[in-house]
Amino acid sequence: MNAPASQGIGLQVRDLCKSYDGHAVLKHLTFEVPAGEIFVLMGPSGSGKTVLLKHLIGLESPDTGDILVAGQPVSDPGVMTRYRVAMVFQSGALLNSLTVGENVGLYLSEHRLKPPAEIARVVAEKLELLGLKGTADKIPAELSGGMKKRVAIARALVVEPQLIFYDEPTSELDPLIAVTIGREILNLNRRLQVTSIVVTHDRDLAFGIADRVALLHEGEILALGTPDEVQADPNPLVQRFLKADFRFTPEPALP
Amino acid sequence: MFQDIGEILLLLGRTLRALPHTLRQQRKVCDQLFEIGNASLLMACVLALFIGGVLALQTGPTLAERGLQSFIGQLVGLAVCRELAPVMMAVLIAGRIGSAMAAEIGSMRVYQEIDALRTMNINPVHYLVLPRLIAISIGLPVLVLFAILVGWMGGAVVSFFNQAIAVSFEGYFNSLRQGLEPLDVVNGLLKSFVFAVVIGVVSCHQGLSTIGGPRGIGRSVTKAVVNSIVLILLLDYFLTRILMHLHT
Ligand SMILES: Nc1ncnc2c1ncn2[C@@H]1O[C@H](COP(=O)(O)OP(=O)(O)OP(=O)(O)O)[C@@H](O)[C@H]1O
Ligand SMILES: [Mg+2]
User: Fold this and answer.
1) By the 8 A CB rule, do A107 and A159 touch?
2) Could you tell me the pLDDT band of residue A6, with boundaries at 50, 70 and 90?
3) Whether residues A198 and A170 fall in one domain
4) Which of A112, A254, B134, B219 has the smallest set of CB atoms within 10 Å of its CB?
5) Cβ contacts (< 8 Å) between B117 and chain A: which residues?
6) C-alpha A145 – ligand 1 centre gap (Å)
7) Residue B25 falls within a domain, yes or no?
8) Could you say which DSSP state residue A62 is in?
9) Is residue B3 part of a domain?
10) Do A113 and A236 fall within a single domain?
């Protein structure tokens, strides 16, 4: 809360394992995200991306392994007070009993970081940025799926995070808004060196914004590197995931 | 249920440690208080009226047969303020407010709203449990005070109109005044305060430990209400023993 406004923080994961009811979801993950990087995490549905994010922000505790945020264990309660960290949930996770405006301003109002008038201004500004002008007094139940997602993004941006996790930020959005959000992720990162960890299935977004890309498959990292490195990875699983498309390929005609 | 008691006490401890933050949450406390009054005051009064009435109806004729009907005010008065008002109101509130707390917090749990709070470094105990516990600890004793007064009235009305009892209002309230000390009312309010804490903390705990989608929410609500009522009735006996001991 009192850290300087423009300083990303880094993240380290060492030998992270997690199973649910004997089913191993994360298997010995080790990687590092230096401060100020945009790290994109891709992978098939069910490969453990959401579970990984929940560990990284301290909502779940690992079976074994360490997660360090700015060099300190994320389980240490002090980490969340010393640093500003935010997460955009895959489902949005808006508070249904609050209005959109109250949701977006919640962090500021609960921690009394700004006077109410100033909070209202910040909220209006963030909502406008995400194309949600005039929705501040609605309740989440009145919004479409994509609108909820954008409110969730606005709520995370209000925190002015040093480290931000996006779980499929563009999954319910039309291409125009998806591009806006991709730009905003880049923008935040370039302007304030915000460390950003983005889970996405959107290959355009991933390779458009990533400093590095990791491909998760059944709880293991299959490939990790710059977008060019990953795209050139010879592993057939990687290629299949990256190259899958809808184009109709006729079976070779029998002679 | 009994394996949860440790966790429930832990939650109570964490909530008590959060008490200094009450002032920050005052708006939520007021909202919750309004909710309690709005949902239950009328119902509580109707219930209390009939409880006092039926008590007079059951005991009055027997007393009258032995020429003791002049004691009816004292009997109904004591039973209502020491026992029936606190216990019956607690059961009512467990059903109306405890269930709502478990459902609301349970759905926030299931739909990841509580996770979202935690990522914003907002403590769910401060944000959700504290205001509810404070509101119910104020609301239930106030409700019980109303119920005691209305219950006495119920007894008086039945004693007056029932031919087999036929005690005037004046006679009824004279007997009540002679047989009761202010301490008896305090006794009832003290009990209701303990019951309020039980309902609040059991229901919030149940909400917070909800797992498994909408069905899990339903299960939590049922467990919150049943566990609250069981604990209230068990505690009632021991509280009565303790308070009697302190009286003498
Ligand atoms: N709380 C839980 N209890 C048991 N199993 C879980 C739990 N959370 C996740 N899993 C399992 O972990 C695996 C990974 O789930 P996860 O939600 O991380 O997938 P994902 O990579 O985010 O997929 P998607 O792209 O569809 O969002 C799944 O097999 C899921 O069933
Ligand atoms: Mg996911």
Assistant:
1) yes
2) low
3) yes
4) A254
5) 95
6) 20
7) no
8) -
9) no
10) no
